[in-house]
Amino acid sequence: MRILSGIQPSGRPHIGNYFGMMEPAMQLQNEGDAFFFIADYHSLTSTHDPAVLRQNVRDLAIDFLACGLDPEKATFWRQSDVPEVTELTWILSCVTPMGLLERCVSYKDKIEQGIKPSHGLFAYPVLQAADILIFDSNVVPVGKDQKQHLEVSRDIAMKFNDRYGADLLVVPEPRIRETTATVPGLDGRKMSKSYDNTINIFEETKKKLRKKIMKVVTDSTPVEDPKNPDDSYILQLYQLFADKEKVAEMEASFRAGGQGYGYYKQELFETIWEFFLPMRARREKLEKDSDYVDGVLEEGAKKARAKAREVLDRVRNAVGM
Ligand code: TYM
Fold first, then answer.
1. What would be the CATH architecture of the domain defined by 204-283?
2. Atom nearest to 137 CA in ligand 1
3. Cβ atoms within 10 Å, residue 223
4. Whole-structure pTM value
5. Domain 2-183+290-319 = CATH 3.40.50.620
6. Which candidate, 38, 67, 66, 37, places its Cα nearest to that of 54?
7. Which of 4, 13, 109, 279 could anchor a disulfide with 17, C-beta 3.0 to 4.6 Å?
8. What is the pLDDT of residue 114?
9. For 168-223, how does the pLDDT look when each residue is reduced to its tens digit (9 = 90+)?
10. Ligand 1 pocket: which of 3, 5, 15, 17 to mutate (most atoms <8 Å of CB)?
11. In the sheet where 2-7 sits, what is the strand order?
């Protein structure tokens, strides 16, 4: 079974990325042939400063490795080191109906957020389909926001197989973990850089993390009153990090009343800080070892490229090249 997923280097990863994709993907490292990559071609749709893009790729590589991506088990590379994927994108573009892309909500969302429409932004899901299909991927662990893109990838694979021959391309399955499908941000909306509501895995300092957690939106129930645990963003976030007993304790305390939200935010803050401490320590070491990080990405690109070549040759032959 091939497991594949990608993440854009559009800034430092946040805990939505962590619980929505990184952690579930890393769990799958033991269950099959894991392929993970940094989607820098995709980031060209929004990051236009070359120095920033380069730095983001480097930071993200270190962050993912620090979080537990194991290069002994998983192949890890930078998307643009396997340029075959852009050739497949073109071939797939020619079987992709316009309507399929016109229906994509993420394109419409980005335009609404003020990103200038470009052909790259519109065709983004075709590149994503190529990422997946060029490695004969079976399972793609993602957050819920990628569900539609996965449906597009499946549709494109089926259209291609219809036109050129059954079973030429593997039709992939999304794997979306129910409990962390959409991790909420500080304001309860989906955690996302574009909403400015993120908590990064590696906030610069402990103080900065605390400041962010103190911004989690709450209602104005007075300190002494009982509070409703069911619609609290504090608890929704706390559940990601704390074990069941701790969560039950906090819920009971909410119902009992007598504590202000600041008290629970402090607990949330300390729990998050401790959760990522071992990874933070690994990160510090990796930061000083660029040769190791470069080596992992190079080695990964070599392996990924060999597989990509094989599928691309199959496709080129099928379409008449
Ligand atoms: P990206 O870089 O926006 O996000 C990376 C992964 O994190 C997940 N995610 C979340 N999950 C739960 N809650 C959240 N608040 C949250 N925010 C982000 C995303 O669902 C994603 O799984 N187009 C992709 C990158 C990509 C890709 C691929 C993924 C390019 N090619 C091929 C899979 C397969 C993207 O922009 O993800």
1. Orthogonal Bundle (1.10)
2. 34
3. 12
4. 0.97
5. yes
6. 38
7. 13
8. 87
9. 999 999 999 999 999 999 999 999 998 999 999 999 999 999 999 999 999 999 99
10. 17
11. 74-78, 33-38, 2-7, 139-141, 173-175
